[in-house]
Amino acid sequence: MTGILVLAGTPIGDIADAPPRLAQELADADVVAAEDTRRLRRLTQALGVTPKGRVVSYFEGNESARTPELVEELVGGARVLLVTDAGMPSVSDPGYRLVAAAVEKDVRVTAVPGPSAVLTALALSGLPVDRFCFEGFLPRKAGERLTRLKEVSEERRTLVYFEAPHRLDDTLAAMAEAFGADRRAAVCRELTKTYEEVRRGPLAELAEWAADGVRGEITVVVEGAPERGAQDLSAEELVRRVRLREEAGERRKEAIAAVAVQAGLPKRQVFDAVVAAKNAPSASGS
Predict the structure, then answer these.
(1) 267-285 and 252-263 are packed helices; what angle lies between their axes, rounded to 10 degrees?
(2) Is 0.70 topped by the overall pTM?
(3) Distance (Å, rounded) from C-alpha 206 to C-alpha 186?
(4) CA 87 to CA 10: how far, in whole Å?
(5) Residue 17 exposed, middle or buried by CB count within 10 Å (0-12, 13-18, 19+)
């Protein structure tokens, strides 16, 4: 029988966020493939566990070469655990090649769900979360970065990016150019760590703030583009969109704010439409 590949989420900051199953998987795996074996050692020490299996490195530099070795282990019946430095493997971390190769060999792939900087930042941003897309890291070269941003300038879903702290100011300035200086965003820094910070505001203001220098692990969340032709939306359409969000579980205040953002309209305009619709039956019945 073939083995099993286990993708394990690791804490993005606070070690107490480690999934309960993580320690057991680390102890039981025949092979532990780690993005950084030194960080793995610190993790296992913090969790009070000693891996019984073989520990190997698996990072961007050796991912292509080591994948066939690990697949051979899997085909031979081994339980292979993949951990990266923080968060879930494959999400802007090593893992995709191994998963694809394992699937091709009909090897079972499962996961130990864990922390994710993408979802944590999205939830903390205060921006719409009903639809979003993860864009990973932007190109380092300024021209390529701006081109990539302009490609999604009309994307209406909330956008999530990873960025290095020393490039944050340039990236935010490029976003302000591509998306508009007033587009709302949130910069999430050092999530779940001692100096966690979430800075919210228009892109131009955030770029100015970041110009003084920012440290730590960075995730940037940017609101989607306003809907084109918003001025032509009828009051009935605005009410319908609010009602759909309420039916999906949002509170009315949140639903109104989200519809206003997506439509590019003042919240008051959407609020007035909802109130008018609410009062319409009683008015007609009097």
Answers:
(1) 120
(2) yes
(3) 8
(4) 5
(5) middle
